[in-house]
Amino acid sequence: MQSARGFQFLLSPGPTPVPDRVLNAMHRQSVDFSGPDFIALSDKIFEDVKSVFQTKSVVHIYTSNGHGGWEGVLANLLSPGDEILIPEVGVFSEGWRDMAQALGIVCRTVPNDWRTAIDANRLEEALRADVDRKIKAVLFTHVDTATGIVSDVKAARQAIDAAGHPALFCVDAIASLATTDLPMDAWNLDVVVGASQKGLMMPPGLGLVAANDRAMEASKTATLPRRYFDWQERIKGMHYQRYAGTAPEHHIFGLREVLDMLAEEGLQNVFARHRRLADAVRAAVEVWTEGGAFELNALRPEQRSDSVTSMLAGPNLDVGALQAMGRPMNLYIGSGAGSMSGKSFRIGHMGFINEPMILGSLAAIELVLRRAGVAIGQGAMDAAIASLAAAEPARTMANAAE
Ligand SMILES: *Cc1c(COP(=O)(O)O)cnc(C)c1O
């Protein structure tokens, strides 16, 4: 029996690898969270975290995972019996819908298959049909981490505007924040939800919710019960109230480091790196799929997300067996999520990742596929390397020296 040794390139759709810089920043003794040093750090975090959302609006920080962020959005914007619209994009739009229903919200959906992104025209039609303007909010998932599909947030915003509908536009960016461009203010998004453990390269534990003035205004009159999640309580000005209690200090130390790292690289470069690495994954997977054992879940190339790639297994592919074969060599192969569990596998490519991690993981996955006797096309690694080589023509040795 082989023991798992060596680094695990955790190409997971969350939690993702945590940089040593972030781990080191978190590895320290607790501090007095109401002392001047921590308050100064915290005040700066609340300002600087806005840059990740590309917004000037307030960002609320919950000591929670992404689900906590979801609940915070619903509890602050809605009242019992309110109606909302949820374009169906996959596992995570279902999850947010189920949570809303549990809170007493009436949910309408724009039905869709899980292999293409939602068509903004259908969103517009659904909103036009709401002549009494009963729909209070549209919940929209940017990247569905199960289907691997990225939806067009800008087009969705335009659809809402074209319908002249006043619904608040709330975007789940948990799997796209700091991987894929989503300028909150430029695109006039009312609410954007994130979480620490995906593109933000941190351990799970922070739910982040950016809310613009319209959303903050709506939270003054919405009547769903809330206290911990209450935005109005959190902006009253007291340091303690911003966190509704003890600050998640160590996560704040980590977040400081993450914000510095993102600023050093530059957000646009972060997005470009994700695109480049995702393209390499897709190039390899497309070659594998020539063998017919599995296919890319996202049917349209332009709708394949730069955060995660999801493969739909054919009837003869045992995903669990592949995962089990990978584990002894410390290779992680992502499971399918929600109702895609067992029927798909995933390669996450978000956060603290680079070319060697991508190439190493792809090669190791191919090794497992070959050992398992899965029919795959030949030349996937070549295709991945060629994709990366073509993506960086400016970074030749000669240029790098300049
Ligand atoms: C991971 C994820 C969630 C859930 O986040 P948790 O931190 O697991 O609660 C929600 N939406 C999307 C798009 C996700 O990727």
Automatic annotation (TrEMBL):
- Gene3D superfamilies tied to this protein: Aspartate Aminotransferase, domain 1, Type I PLP-dependent aspartate aminotransferase-like (Major domain)
Does RNA-binding show up as a keyword for this record? no
Sorted keywords for this record are: Aminotransferase, Pyridoxal phosphate, Transferase
A GO biological process of this protein is: glycine biosynthetic process, by transamination of glyoxylate
- Which segments does the entry list as coiled coil? none
- Positions annotated to bind substrate: R346
Which residues does the record list as N6-(pyridoxal phosphate)lysine (modified residue)? K198
Q: Where is the signal peptide?
A: none
Its required cofactor(s), as named, are: pyridoxal 5'-phosphate
Q: Aminotransferase class V domain: from which residue to which, for each copy?
A: 9-286
Q: Which domain of life is it from?
A: Bacteria
Q: Name one GO molecular function term.
A: alanine-glyoxylate transaminase activity
UniProt keyword Transmembrane helix, yes or no: no
Q: Which family does it belong to?
A: Belongs to the class-V pyridoxal-phosphate-dependent aminotransferase family.
Task: Name the PANTHER family for this protein.
Answer: ALANINE--GLYOXYLATE AMINOTRANSFERASE (PTHR21152:SF40), AMINOTRANSFERASE CLASS V (PTHR21152)
Could you tell me what this protein is called?
Answer: Aminotransferase class V-fold PLP-dependent enzyme
